[in-house]
Design a protein that fits this description.
Shape: extended
Bound molecules: zinc ion
């Protein structure tokens, strides 16, 4: 609750930065609705995210090129697809997976590889820790 109020105050203070993410995949060709097969239109979606909030991990706060990062309230704008008939909003990942399914290809995950890497790293850390402890015990 306190966090919510704090975020609300931060939002109220205004936006410190903006980031527009273009989707080449969405814009380079026409896409069709998975439900009614109608032509989808490109729509821009935006959200103000605070760099210290819980959802910040889902957004890329790096600023292009110089390797710096944006702090505070950042307005993210990204492309999605929209079907006016079905009132359906489709994200880039969803349309990608839908089109891969149509071609009989395997679906791609959002951050599955990242998750696996994190898991392997944590396992290695635990093993390394035990090895160090065992070595220390042998010395004693
Ligand atoms: Zn549709």
């Amino acid at each position: 609750m306190i966090k919510r109020i704090r975020n609300w105050i931060r939002n109220w203070e205004g936006v410190q930065g903006q980031k527009k993410m273009w989707s080449i995949y969405i814009r380079r060709k026409n896409h069709y609705c998975p439900c009614c097969y109608g032509l989808l239109e490109v729509k821009e979606k935006s959200k103000i995210v605070n760099s210290e909030s819980e959802e910040a991990k889902n957004f890329d706060f790096s600023s292009g090129g110089e390797g710096g990062s944006m702090i505070g309230n950042v307005k993210f704008t990204w492309d999605i697809l929209y079907c006016g008939k079905c009132n359906l909003e489709i994200s880039e990942l969803e349309i990608r997976n839908h089109e891969r399914r149509l071609k009989g290809k395997k679906e791609i995950g959002h951050s599955k590889i990242g998750l696996i890497v994190v898991r392997i790293l944590s396992i290695i850390t635990i093993i390394a820790f035990f090895l160090i402890v065992m070595k220390l015990q042998r010395r004693a």
